Amino acid sequence: MPGVKKRLAHPLLSYLLGLFFMVLTLIVFCGVIHHLAFSSHGPKLLGSFVEKYEAQTKSKILDDSQKLLEMEKHNHFHNFPAEYPKLPENMQPVCFICHSDFPHSKNKRIRSLMNMHTQFFTCETCHIKKRSDFKIVYKWHNPQKENTKGPFFGTSYNPRTGRLLEGDDPIAKITPFFKSINSSQNSKELISVIQLQNTPFVKDYIKVSGKLSPEEREGIKNKFHQKIKPKGHNCMDCHAQNSILNFKQLGFSENRIKYLRTLEILGMLSQYEDFYLPELFPDSPVQTNNKETK
Amino acid sequence: MEISKKCIVLYVLWLGINTLFFNDSLAVAADKENCLMCHKHRFNARIDENGRKRNYHVNENLYSHSVHRNISCRDCHTYITKIPHDPVTLKVNCANQCHIRPPFAQEKFSHRKIVDLYKNSVHGGKPEDSEILQKALPNCKFCHLNPLYSKISEKRVSYKETLARCNNCHPQSGVEMAYKHITHRLRKKTSRSSREIVQLCGKCHGDKNLMQKLNVSKKAMDAVESYNRSVHGKLVQLGSQKAANCINCHASSALHDINKADNPGSTISKDKIMNTCRQCHKNTDEMFVDIAVHPDITHAGNPIIKMISLSLGLGMYGSVLALVGLLLLETVGRRKDGARLVLKKGTTWYGKQKSVSGKKK
Amino acid sequence: MKANVKACDEEYYTHVEGIGSIPRDIYKYVTSDPMGDLPRFSIHIVIQHTLFFISFLVLVSTGLPIYFSDVFWSPYVIALYGGIDIARIIHKTGAVIMILASMYHLITVVGGTMLKILKKEFDLKRTQIPRLKDLYDLIDDIKYFLGREPYRPKMEKFMYKQKFHYFAVMYGSFVLTAAGLALLFPDMAAKLLPQTIGKIFSPVLIGAESFAAFFQDLARLMHADEAILALIVLAFWHWINVHFVPGRFPIQWTFLTGRIMREHQIEEHFLEYLNNLKEIPEEREYMRNLLSDNNLGVPSPESGKSILADVPDIH
Questions:
Q1: For residue C235, is it within any domain?
Q2: How far is CA B196 from CA B149, B201, C201, in A?
Q3: CA-based, 20 to 30 A from B110: which of A8, B151, B333, C186?
Q4: No. of helices (H) and no. of strands (E), chain C
Q5: Contact B87 A166 (CB under 8 A)
Q6: Which residues in chain B touch residue A10, judged by CB atoms under 8 angstroms apart?
């Protein structure tokens, strides 16, 4: 019937096909806008805005550290993976904020060797002040995982290759806990010694640290270090028969314990008398031990 | 670029994991003097006085699958005489003889031949070079990593099958290592991909400040930029392994004899450039070598091309604007005539139809 | 109002023998099937268009990321194709399809024309060949869009913009093919060119390099710029013009069915519609019924009066 129904309806497929062309047109449109505004090939109509934004966010320090990181990767001949398993930055202990994973730098001969230990235990393991009313218990601890059970890196050897086993929990570290002297042998009441970033005090500090005066900041810093002694344990406190760490309880295998307590490490410690720079720590037990053995 | 970096990191990690848990052949690094006692620990590092992180970690799992796995530490780090050693100030000399004796050879192994080649190339430097230039020249380690061996399968034949015949007579672990050693060098002229080669060369040659200090020619100044504009550069940037990278043209199979074009020994010298192009373009003749491999986008020396480029651009903007303008004008005119966008049923000429049917009834 | 005055003009009615007088704006009252009522393209043209269209999309989506290799999106597009080496193969395959489609088109067009000439059916007006009338049509159309004319001009099967686009595509595909071949076989191009064309041009004219180098530079420039031009014209003009403007939305099926809507044919290709009336008996029937059922047409030219003349609100 002419004049009544002027145009028949499209089949549904039409809308799909139409959409297809529309999407194509839209994609090309976005491409053209990008080309005109930002692309290095086009006239860069918005180039000045981009430059302004870049100038605002630019930091010479950031650039330099980026360059250093790149050179580190570029120059390292010995193939180490670029990323290690690591705690997220906000879950690291407070020490990490200032001292990083590589805190020792004074003693030239052993600084990196001392830094090596941060893979295995937290700062407090060495640097915690003793308290008369508590004794210290050492445990593997992973802030992400409560009651983590190993095996942990470095506790045993792969019998085939003779290399250290990687273990299941690459993040856990040996951490000291206070245990009340009065509590019974079996009580499990442990007080954590490490200062994590999720305590209210630390959270508050991170929030306001920019507003504090230098003196105030110094004061807070001292507060953080109240329970910390600047000089940690000596090598022989752990790497000896009567180690303060109960390696067996910590899950180390027999041969690993033997190695840690006696073999090369002990041999090296005693063989090189000047290893520990005696003039810095004149009462070093290494020295006295050696003199006794001699 | 970031993607590929991540891929490489993942690949290296994967290799590490693979070698740890799934590899049957036990690769053991040569470490008679137990240097790894300290250096196997990944936090064996420090931040130095200049703020640079110095990492002394040697990943034994990765290192034992690298090409240098059989060299003991002190073959390269000869200056270390006692443990614990003094802070290191000297650098490794790759021309040293190490204690490996290659098959069929009388002498101990050394990179001396390559080092000599490098010393004679443009990167080796001359005593009369300026201090800046001498500082800018790359040493071996600048370009060379300690590459990891990887299993290379023949086409459509798995790695295991490739070696199945050999294993009939030879012990498996030895054959695998020998095979990896050979295929690594056959297949991978460089342990870096083409893109990484361009990035590597670009680290210095793309650094305009440095190049300005070294007073290089205009062509050398733009070399990286113009290469990236060429079709070779574009394909390499997108991950092609077939397109020519820097060293495909600028070095022979010895890889270290990179020289300027006016040096007769250079691969891009007048006499040799045709052979260089023929590696890929079989029909190269003396006209072909005139084609710009590093094209100049400003077309400064070519007014005709510049004019065509300009008029094409104008034509593009002009025609698009004119056509879209006509389209808009037409739509406006047809809408005035009564044409409407119709989504489903009814007529395009929506406004008019009513009056007709109204009239009819 | 102006239209109303013109309605009485002879221009307004086209008298067709045996049907009656057809008003110029009859397209507003005809029944149209979106899938197409009247023949426009042969099956060959539909196939050629489909091949061209698909190969063009493939070529553009592989070629652009190579040309803009340093722009953020290009690695993703290339990854979609499975790596640059595969993308290159796909690009070359697309090029082969496009060249084959072009050749197919040339064969059908030349062959079809010959056949028509032999059968003495050839009509220059119904081909893509540009005429002076197209220029007048363009001017008249613009005048109409601006409101200076009451009706659109009566146009042939191919109107001015279609002819323009047809020759733009012809020129573009020729340039793209030639430049693409020179990029794919630069050594062959260098070998072939200087002997033939190179001698015509003096080396001073083209700069310091040889003609081979000049031609390669030209090919690099033209291949990319022509492709981008083609893409932009297609995306912002052709698709919108064909599919999205009022009356064509959401899609015009002509490129798949080879048939055109009646209302579209009458509006933009009126003269071709008259040909249709001559050739298709069903269409004559339809138009005669439409005119008489609605009393739209003038009964006969002799009466000289339109019944529409006293229905002013129609227009």
A1: yes
A2: 18, 9, 42
A3: B151
A4: 13, 4
A5: no
A6: 344
- Of C248, C271, C301, the residue at which a domain comes to its end is C248
d(CA B346, CA B354): 11
Q: Count of domains in chain C?
A: 3
Residue C289 has pLDDT above 70, yes or no: yes
pLDDT tens digit at each of 361 positions of chain B: 455 566 566 555 555 554 444 443 455 566 777 788 888 888 888 888 887 888 888 887 788 888 888 888 888 888 887 777 777 888 888 888 877 777 777 778 888 888 888 888 888 888 888 888 888 888 888 888 887 777 777 777 777 787 887 777 778 777 887 888 787 777 767 778 899 899 989 988 998 999 999 888 888 899 999 999 899 999 999 988 889 999 899 988 888 889 988 888 899 998 899 999 999 899 888 888 888 889 887 777 777 888 888 898 898 889 899 999 999 999 998 888 878 776 666 556 654 443 333 333 2
C153-165 burial: b if 16+ Cβ within 10 Å, else e: bbbbbbbbbbbbb
- Before C250, cis peptide (omega within 30)? yes
Q: Examine the fold and report which residue of C122, C144, C178 is the final residue of a domain before the chain moves on.
A: C122
In chain A, the residue whose alpha carbon lies closest to the alpha carbon of B149 is: A79
Q: Where are the domains of chain B?
A: 1-93, 316-360
Q: Poorest-confidence range of A84-93, A95-104, C1-10, C187-196? A: C1-10
What the block records as the tokens of B76 is 């390269």
The dihedral over CA atoms of B307, B313, B318, B324, expressed in degrees to the nearest 10, equals 160
CB count, 10 Å around CB of B83? Answer: 15
Q: Are strands A191-192 and B45-47 parallel, antiparallel or unpaired?
A: unpaired
> Which has the minimum average pLDDT: A6-20, B23-37, C260-274?
B23-37
Give partners of B (≥3 CB pairs < 8 A): A, C
Which string of b and e fits A42-59 if b means at least 16 CB within 10 Å?
Answer: bebeeeeeeeeeeeeeee
How far is the C-alpha of C258 from the C-alpha of C254, rounded, in Å?
Answer: 5
Q: Are residues C148 and C297 in the same domain?
A: yes
Interface test with B, best of A80, A101, A165 (most B CBs within 10 A): A80
Q: How many residues does chain A have?
A: 294
Neighboring chain A residues of C33 at a CB cutoff of 8 Å: 7-8
Same domain, C135 and C116: no
The answer for residues whose C-beta is within 8 angstroms of residue C189's C-beta and 6 or more apart is C181, C182, C212, C215, C216, C219
Compute φ and ψ for A114, nearest 5 degrees. Answer: -70, -40
DSSP H/E element including A150: none
Do C16 and C117 belong to one domain? no
- Interface predicted TM-score (ipTM): 0.84
Handedness of CA B26, B31, B37, B43 (dihedral sign): negative
Point out the residue among C57, C73, C240 whose CB comes nearest to the CB of A25: C240
The rounded radius of gyration (Å) of the Cα atoms in chain C is: 25
Give the residues across from C39 on adjacent strands.
Answer: C259
Q: Centre a 10 Å sphere on the Cβ of residue B76 and count the other Cβ atoms it contains.
A: 17
Structural domain that includes position C92: 43-122
3-state secondary structure of C15: strand
For chains A and B, CB pairs below 8 A equal 122
